[in-house]
Design a protein that fits this description.
90 residues, alpha+beta, Nuclear Transport Factor 2, Chain: A, four-stranded antiparallel β-sheet, globular, NTF2-like_dom_sf
């Protein structure tokens, strides 16, 4: 999760697409170059160790003017973690 947040900060759409699960990956990703990310707070995790094939991360990512609160799902693909999808807890 932290590496994907850093990719958003840097505007690295190629990395985000590479780390997205092939089953749910969009064909392209258009990032807003005007977004200024200001912080990441990991609120909870499940799974995600070397012994797991799935995991979740609940986080809050902030930018100037707002924040995103998401519960993300990850799965291993050929040994590497890949972002599957997420929902927005209330």
């Amino acid at each position: 999760m932290r590496s994907r947040y850093c990719a958003f900060v840097r505007g690295d759409a190629a990395y985000l697409l590479r780390t997205w699960h092939p089953r749910t990956r969009p064909a392209r990703l258009d990032l807003d170059p005007g977004t200024r990310w200001t912080g990441l707070e990991v609120l909870a995790t499940t799974g995600g160790s070397a012994f797991h094939t799935t995991g979740t991360v609940t986080f809050r990512a902030s930018w100037r003017g707002g924040s995103l609160h998401e519960h993300s799902r990850f799965e291993r693909v050929e040994g590497a973690w890949a972002y599957v999808d997420g929902d927005f807890p209330e």
